Amino acid sequence: MTGQAKAGRPNQLLRNLNSKIASIPMILTALVIFLGGTVWTVVYSFTNSKLLPRLSFVGIDQYRRLWAAPRWIISIENLAVYGVLSLIFSLVIGFVLAALMDQKIRFENTFRTIFLYPFALSFIVTGLVWQWILNPEFGVQSVIRSLGWTTFTFDPLYTPEIVIYGILIAALWQGTGLVMCLMLAGLRGIDEDIWKASRVDGIPMWKTYLFIVIPMMRPVFITTLVIIASGIVKVYDLVVAQTSGGPGIASEVPAKYVYDYMFQAQNLGQGFAASTMMLITVAIIIIPWAYLEFGGPKRA
C-alpha cells in the first residue's frame, strides 16, 4: 500500500500539468505585482516620502497626521454613509427587481437589458449624466418648477449636508442592474418543487422568500456583498465627475484623498498611509468572506 501511495503522488502532481504551467504567469503576477506592491506601499507609509519615495522612516507620524486631518475624517464619514445605504438599497432593490423578473413576465429580456444597461456605462459618464439631471438650473428642480411647483427645491449636489445622497442616487442607478442579474441567477437556481411545495402547504409568498429562498441563496448574497463592498471602498470617478469633492470638501472620499495627496500635493507618505487604511478596510471585507466560503464549516 505504501508503494502504491508513493506511486500515486507523482501522478497527482502531473495531473492537469498544462493548466498548472499556464497559471504560472498569473501566480507570478499576483506575487510580484499585487503582493509586492502591497508590501511596498505599507513599508513606505512609515516614511517621510514626498515627491519621490525614500526610506526615511518617521514611525506612525503619517497615520497621526492622517487621522488628524478634517478632510480624511469627512471622507471616512461619507464612505460610511454611502457604503451602508448603498449596500442596503442595492440588495433590496436588486432582489425585488429579480423577484419580479422571476415571475416569467412578458418582454423579460427587454426589461433585463434596460435595467442592466447603466452598468455598461463608465462611472465618469454616469456622474456627468446625473450632474446634469440634478442641476437646479436645468435638471429635475427646473422641470418641476416649470410645471407650477415654483417653491420645489431639489439640489443635492450643491448642498453640503446632502451631497453624498446625490452621489448615492447615481451609484444605485448604475449598479442595481448588476445586483438584479446576480439575484435572478440565484432565483433561477431554486428547484421548482420548492415553490410547488410551499403553495401546497399554503405558505404565503413573502414567507417563502424570507424563510426558504433567501437562506438557500446565501452564496449569491455573500458574493454580491463582496462585489458591492469592493466598489464602495474604491469609489472615486463617480465623485470626481459629479462634484470633484465639493461643495468645498463635503463629498470627499478616501480614494480621492489618496489620489490628491500622491499626485497633486506630492506627499507620497501621506498617500501611502491612506492607501494602507483602505487596504485594511478591504481586508476586513475579504477575510470573513474567504473564511465563510472556503474555511468555515460546510453546510449540508
From TrEMBL:
Q: Could you name the domain of life of the organism this protein comes from?
A: Bacteria
List cellular component terms (GO): plasma membrane
Q: From the record, give the transmembrane residue ranges.
A: 21-46, 79-101, 113-133, 162-187, 208-233, 272-292
Query: In what residue span(s) does the ABC transmembrane type-1 domain sit?
Result: 76-291
Q: Which organism is it from?
A: Rhizobium mesoamericanum STM3625
Q: How does it sit in the membrane?
A: Multi-pass membrane protein
Q: What is this protein called?
A: Sugar ABC transporter
Q: What Gene Ontology terms for biological process does this UniProt record contain?
A: transmembrane transport
Sequence similarity? Belongs to the binding-protein-dependent transport system permease family.
Give a yes or no for keyword Ligase in this entry.
no
Q: Which InterPro entries match?
A: ABC_transporter_permease, MetI-like, MetI-like_sf
What keywords would UniProt list here? Cell membrane, Membrane, Transmembrane, Transmembrane helix, Transport
Localization, per the record, is:
Cell membrane
